[in-house]
Amino acid sequence: MSDPVLRAGFVGTGIFATDKHLPTLQSIPSHFKPIAAFNRTKAKAETFATKANIEPSHVHDSIDSILKDPEVDFIDALLPVENNYSTIKAAVDAGKPIIVEKPIAADLDDAAKIVALDKSTDIPILIAENWIYFKAVDLIKERLDKIGPIVSFTYRSTGPFYQKNKYLSTSWRQHPKHIGGFLSDGGVHQLALLTQVLGNFENISAHTTQVRKESGTDDVLFSTVKLQSGVIGTFTYGSAFGAVEKHGSFIIYGANGSITLDFSAKNAHKKLTTLVGHYGETIDDQEVLEFDEDSTGGVGPEFENLYEAITKKDKSLIRSTPEVTYHHLAIIAAALESSKKNGDSVTISKP
């Protein structure tokens, strides 16, 4: 028996739906088929439907209408995040599995409601933090024991501000209703990778600032953190600077060596360097691995994860759960609170 094909109903047909989600689903025709679409501006949904080969009869006038479409097996929602909770609740009430774009919600109250809703239902809910599905996560975790025990880390993702960034033109990014604006919009990606490897944060001491008026709110974050495991480190994120090379690195320091992930834009490939040695005078083992993430940047694997959860009727298979992604938004909220308190340590909240 062949695998079932899940039919996707798109709620929101903007840039990321058109440029990333649609071609990703179209590249996996054995598992997915775009079947329906809704946008508040119907003309945009109709344009999207043409690209997706969706019949005009499946271009809907409301979320309620697309949720009632019997041919829709699951909802792919790409909306301003302040709409995430209401959309997820409507999908669950209609019995439809749903994937929504990150961050999980506009604020921690809504995020906590989504976590509670997720715990109350067997219907799969996946928050689309695609960095959770990066190869780098597993590659690093496979090597941690070689350098342990882990002592500390430095995570840095910094880069210049681009005026012609196509995502910048969206009003919900220029006038963010979600906490942290660009810090949560992009920062949760970085935190997904970090926490998938080393575990959750316990507290954070941070300073934030706003460099660009176009960001709508603070857009640079420098911090020191302590993980629940006791590991200490630094987390730096911001893409609002002037001309500078885009830099990305994640260095993990152990008592018996180090692991360095270099994901800077100047490199053609990601590079993972593992050094094993108890003292600086002796390196017992050295490995340099160059690799590429999959061509979809983790979007394909997250959809495959949703497919597995739906077809096996087992939501426990989902990796990017509301509870996991709540933590990433809570870190940004705590960092902003810490900054207002002149860098005082703030404990990360729980749902």
From TrEMBL:
Residues 7-121 form the Gfo/Idh/MocA-like oxidoreductase N-terminal domain. GO terms for molecular function: nucleotide binding; oxidoreductase activity, acting on NAD(P)H. One of its GO terms (cellular component) is cytoplasm. Gene3D superfamilies: Dihydrodipicolinate Reductase, domain 2, NAD(P)-binding Rossmann-like Domain. Residues 143-346 form the Gfo/Idh/MocA-like oxidoreductase C-terminal domain. It comes from the Eukaryota. InterPro entries: Gfo/Idh/MocA-like_OxRdtase_C, Gfo/Idh/MocA-like_OxRdtase_N, NAD(P)-bd_dom_sf. One of its GO terms (biological process) is NADPH regeneration. SUPFAM superfamilies: Glyceraldehyde-3-phosphate dehydrogenase-like, C-terminal domain, NAD(P)-binding Rossmann-fold domains. This is Gfo/Idh/MocA-like oxidoreductase N-terminal domain-containing protein. The lineage of its organism: Eukaryota, Fungi, Dikarya, Ascomycota, Saccharomycotina.
